[in-house]
Amino acid sequence: MSLLTWSALLYAALTALCLSLNRHYRDVFNNRPIWPSQRALRWLGFTGIAGSLLFCIASAPDGRSWVMWFCTFAVLSCTISMGLAYFPRFISLAGKTAVTVFLTAVTIEFSF
Amino acid sequence: MAWLHTWSGLVVGWLLLAIFMTGTASYYRSEITAWMHPEIRPSAPISEAASLKQAMDWLEQCAPDAASWLIDLPTTRLPVTQVMWQGAGERRYNSEWLDPASAQTLTPRKTFGGDFFYGFHFQLSLPSQIGRWIVGVASMAMLIAIVSGVIIHRRIFKDFFTFRPGKGQRSWLDAHNTLSVLALPFHAVITYTGLITLMFMYIPWGVDLVYGPDRAAFFRDIRDFSAPQVPALGRAVLASPETLIQQARQHWGQEHIARVSITAPGAVNARVELFRDTLDHVSSQPQRLVLDGVGGEWVGTNPSTGPVKAFYGVMYGLHLAHFADPLLRVLLFLSGLGGCAMIATGLQLWVVKRRGNSRRGVYRHIEGLNIAAMLGLPTAMAAFLWANRLLPGDMPARDIREIQAFFCTWLLTLLHAQMRLTQHAWREQAMLCALTCGGLPVLDILTGPNPINGLNLVCGLLGMSFAVVAWRLYQPAQQCIPQTRAPGSRPPRSERHS
Predict the structure, then answer these.
(1) Would you say B153 and B142 are in contact if contact means Cβ atoms under 8 Å apart?
(2) Where would you find the membrane-spanning parts of this chain (chain A) (predicted)?
């Protein structure tokens, strides 16, 4: 798993986690989460975060990967926080792009 | 618990901000050192075999009778070969830099380079014992503030991504919470490992119990130090650099030698130690290869580390982050900036909460301290770099003058922040900070050999960020916080007519 793959998954998961909170969902979509539900978004978020950590450690199983993952987590979640404050309409688009990048990267990696 | 968080953070907050800011800059210590020595020309990558041969030839010619030699091979971050030698009976090492391309001695300007920020980070430019103790107390207070902050933050998940700009006190609190929580692992680890690096000074009783008064024996054990060879009378030719490199490649693979130590060079009992770089593991404990100095045969490696030494090495390594590749270094730098912003927003939140609309009194002076710490310190750091390029190269004690430029600038920003009205002080210092940081790339283009480098990019970006801050501060103040009314009181006239 490359850096791009797990960081895209992490970003998508953080976006899902962020949208699982009513306040942020309303900022982005102007209504309450219906589908996927709040609980589903939360589960997607936590599962994605755990998955990205696993992929990161599996790709280079040494201590540096842990440092890399936690620093990436901090920087990406700060990016989402700032995005929510100043460009809330782009949060959904960026999250969908991250999912696409992750799925494409996974497909390419497993194909070759 | 809230009072503990408030006071443990506030009392040492300004100091912590200085420690965090210089520590963050120290992630680019080598790059700052290279920037401050424009005599260093960027060169094409030189193989470690060629660099080692150049250094050994130079030392053979210039210090043949030295008791020991040390050679630090060039890296991509600092492309110079550093040769050091210790004369018989001398305690200190003499040092020269060699250009790896031409093997000629460089005559760089006198400056502390990035080592100044690094030293200030844990010693505050004070006598070592005093400075380290002050930093230790501040770090302990920081650790208390982090733990108590987590305990008092009840809505830690709900507020995870919450930042509401333009809402006065609420925005400062949001920014402080968000920056604290999102990078909490970084803040906790960097503070804890910072304490660990100097733990033997802060808590010496365990070492005293095992080693008694023989403190040197402890450091020999913890640092894998081996006593230097006493030179024998017989003379012999040193093993060739190619032989030494061959041994390193057999054990470590290509291009991993960071340092070569040769004791008793030229004697029949000469000994060579090769130190591996720590780029591919977290621990700061380098692997060591001991070779016979004459034949080049393998003699031994450093003894296997026990759990305590391994733990200490990993903690030390996590703090120094020598293992970081360029991307991870950027992420660590950004996390460090996040730590600075966390402390800064906490300090300002305390003032904003208490001062109300008052612009006078003790809170005005405390806000002045905040301004000097948040904007004055980066201005002073930039002034240190400006002084490096503007002071004449042959000026006596010019390295000390650079440091004086740093402290004088910081002191002036402190006085300015105390004498001016706070809103003027914020604006003027933000503008000054933008100009000093943003002007550094221009200065480098005018006076340096290679204007395309990372430091110029970072300074340019910082300059732009401070310019945006200054621009925002110069905008007319908006009343962002909705006025709360006492129950039953009449609404303001503007609301009554709407």
Answers:
(1) no
(2) 42-60, 67-87
Chain A contact for B144 (CB, 8 A cutoff): no
Please answer whether residues B339 and B186 qualify as being in contact, where contact means their C-beta atoms are separated by less than 8 angstroms. yes
- Output the CA–CA distances (angstroms, integers) from residue B404 to B20, B202, B368, B390, in the order listed: 21, 30, 22, 14
User: H helices then E strands: how many in chain B?
Assistant: 20, 8
Q: Using CA atoms, how far apart are residues B360 and B371, in angstroms rounded to an integer?
A: 15
ipTM of the complex: 0.93
Structural domain total, chain A: 1
Chain-chain contact of B281 with A68 (C-beta, under 8 angstroms): no
> Which residue is closest to B315 within chain A, CA to CA?
A63
Q: CB B165 to CB A70 under 8 A?
A: no
Parent domain of A10: 3-111
The tokens for B368 are 């002045």
Q: What is the rounded distance in angstroms from the CA atom of residue A56 to the CA atom of residue A72?
A: 11
Domain ranges of chain B: 1-36+111-224+351-356, 357-480
Q: Which residues of chain B make contact with A87, given a CB cutoff of 8 A?
A: none
Q: Give the span between the Cα atoms of A32 and A24, in whole angstroms.
A: 9
pLDDT for B449 beyond 70: yes
Among candidates B440, B433, B434, B400, which has minimal Cα distance to B416? B433
Tell me which residue in A67, A81, A86 faces B328 most closely, judged by beta carbons.
A67
Question: What's the average pLDDT block by block, 10 residues per block, for chain A (112 residues)?
Answer: 90 93 86 79 94 92 91 95 91 92 89 76
Say which of B165, B179, B332 has its CB closest to residue A71.
B332
- Nearest chain A alpha carbon to B158: A21
Number of H helices, E strands in chain A: 5, 0
Cβ <8 Å between B179 and A82: no
Q: How far apart are alpha carbons B402 and B316 in whole angstroms?
A: 29
Return d(Cα B204, Cα B213) in angstroms, integer. Answer: 11
